[in-house]
Structure formats: C-alpha cells, structure tokens
Amino acid sequence: MEYLPKEIVKIIEWGLKGDPERVNIYLNKLIEKLMQEGDVDAMKRLRALQEKAASPVTTSAIGYNRQLPVDGESRLELADEEILDPKNYKVILDTNTHSLIEEFIAFVKNVDELEAHGIYLSPSLITYGPPGTGKTQLARYIAGRLGMPLVIARTDALISSFLGSTSKNLRNLFDHVSQRSCILFLDEIDALAKLRDDHQELGELKRVVVSLLQNLDAMSHHTVLLAATNHEHLLDPAIWRRFSFKIPLKVPEEKERKELLKLYFGSFQKGLNFDLFTSLTNTMTGSDIRTLALDAIRDTVINKLDTVNSDRLVWSCIRICLNNNIITENPSSQDLKAIKKLNSTYFTGLKLAEMFGVSPATISRKLGKREANE
C-alpha cells in the first residue's frame, strides 16, 4: 500500500502531544484504509499492536496532566468525565433527526479533510426540547460512536460566588479540553448563556455570556462541543450562531415509542401488547418510557413473576400520563375522559367499571351513556 502521510503525521503529532485517544482515532482511520485497499497483513499487524498496548502513549512520561480543572473557591472539579461504550448507548430517533446526527458524526470524523480544503469549522451541536427527550443520552451516544471521552461541565461548580471567577472557570475548562482529544458537553447551557437584555440578570452574569462567547470563538476546530437546553427561548442569540448544528428533540412519535418500549423491556417482552402500550404512552418522553419499563421489570423480578403484569403496567401508564393525579377509588368524569382518550377501543365502559370496581351504570352516568359505549 502507498502509505497516506496525513494519518502517519497525525499519529506522530498527537503521540508527541501525549494524546492516546487521538492517536487511536487516526490509527483506526489508517487501519480502515488498509482494510479497504486489501492490505490485510499490515492491517492485522497494526490492530494487534493496538490491542496489545493498554496505553499507546503514557501521559506521565511526558508530563501531560489530565486532571480536570477545579474551582478556586470550592475546589470542586469543573466537570465530570465519562468513557462510553457505544454498545451501551442506543438512541431511538425519527428519520430526520437520525440523519442529522449521522451527518454531525461524519463531520467530526472528517474535520481534517475539511481543513485540507480550507474549511475551518468547529464541530459543534446543540440540542433543545422538553426535559426527558434524551439530550444527555444523545451526547453519550455521540461520544461512544466517536470513541472519545465525554467531559460534562458541572454548572454548579462553574458558577462561582466570587465576581469574575465564573469566567475564569470557563476559560480553565476550555483550555483543558483544547489540549486533548475529548468532547465537551455543556448541559443546561442556558444557565451560562441567558439573554443579555434580561433586566433581571446581574451585570456579572451578562459578562459570563461574553466570556462564554469568547471561549467558543477561540475553540480549535479539533475540539468537539455539544450543548443542551430545556429553555431555548432563554439563550442569547449570539450563542445560537456559534453552533454548526441545531437539533430539536421532541416527544417521540408512535414508531419511536414502540421501538423504545421494545428496547427498554428487552428480555421481558413476552406477552406484552406493544400496540396497546404504544398508544398508552402517547404523551410520554423517552425518559418516561424508560422509567415505566424499569419499574415494571423491577416489579416482575421482585415478585418472581414469569412475565410482566400487563394490568399493573396499564395502571402505570395511566398514572404517568395523568401526572399521577388519578383517583383510583372514586374517579371524576374528567379522569375517566382522560383515560378513555388514551385508547377508546381498550377503555370501554365495561373495562373502566372493572378497573375501578364500580357498576357500568356509574361509568355511564359520569361519562354520559353515549361516550361510555363508544
């Protein structure tokens, strides 16, 4: 094979900088190209060396400090770090969102090729939407796919009680991630980047926004940045402009809900009517569905049951969808109508009467005879 100098140069460059993760990224690229070109022997030799070496470059030998920076006042670390196995993080997304995520991952993997064509863009992505729609899970999924550590900023440690210290903390964190191969994840970025025309905010917090913007502008195009917010309307417009990808995450649709149910119930799927439970989870987020499944599995294991109790699972769906406000002994007309709306075919008047231990006549009176029979 005619060796590609770009991969070799990058492996040497990041090896000298003491960045084993980045060395492995370019080593994987070289191995992949060797495989594509049919040089199996060379590919196997490199793979064997990679597997044999627990740490391709020892950071201690060259004095590079991987310790996360800390707040000067509290001495708390400014971030947490996670090493992700992509097998443990699967995401269920609609087709359009999935395509955008794949496009972003390809962007990160090809940042050097883009640079070679004079395109210098920092790989950055922000997700936004209601709580529980999978923003943090998605960040972990992306980190796992890219084979890079995920450095999750700790907002409680970043925001200091000392004037000016928050900006200093931000600079220290950005300096840290710029020296290594990793992904910086700013969760709840709105806590750091609120609108500067918000008159209720102190001048110091407005200066934090300026500091954040300056750090974003100074980022290397090798630094991968992910961010998330539940309150996109609070973000300063200048922050939005710093992100190459802006992806909304919504409450899952029917197809995604069924896939999530099957994913989370795993080996406990036997006997479950997924069409029914897909309809009963209509208003749930991915987080709600995960909680629903884990609670049902826990109940199954503790009670030594062979299968998940479907009747209990129906009640769990009702409680989550109605914000746990359902009255099981004497339901109001409003409660009954809300339940029936989840799946009118399943929740007939007779079924509701059975569930609440009342007569069908009581259900008819509360719902109206016509609605009870529909």
Helix and strand arrangement:
Elements: H1 5-16, H2 20-36, H3 40-52, H4 59-62, E1 79-82, H5 95-109, H6 111-116, E2 124-128, H7 135-146, E3 150-153, H8 155-158, H9 165-178, E4 183-186, H10 203-217, E5 224-229, H11 237-240, E6 245-248, H12 254-265, H13 274-280, H14 286-302, H15 310-321, H16 333-342, H17 349-356, H18 360-367, H19 369-373
InterPro entries: 26S_Proteasome_ATPase, AAA+_ATPase, ATPase_AAA_core, ATPase_AAA_CS, P-loop_NTPase
Family: Belongs to the AAA ATPase family.
Domain AAA+ ATPase: 121-253
Strand order of the largest sheet: 1-3-4-5-2-6
Low-confidence runs: 54-65
- Work out the number of β strands: 6
What's the level 1 CATH class of the largest domain?
A: Alpha Beta
Shape, please? globular
Into which percent range does the helicity of residues fall? 40-55%
What is the straight-line distance between the termini?
72 Å
Q: What is the CATH T-level topology of the largest domain?
A: Rossmann fold
Tell me, rounded to a whole number, the average pLDDT: 84
Oligomer: single chain
Order of helices and strands: HHHHEHHEHEHHEHEHEHHHHHHHH
For the sheet with most strands, the description reads: 6 strands, mixed
Any guess at the CATH architecture of the largest domain?
3-Layer(aba) Sandwich
CATH superfamily of the largest domain: P-loop containing nucleotide triphosphate hydrolases
CA gyration radius, whole angstroms = 26 Å
Strand content: 5-15%
Q: Name the structural class.
A: alpha/beta
Helix count from the secondary structure assignment: 19
The structural domain count equals 3
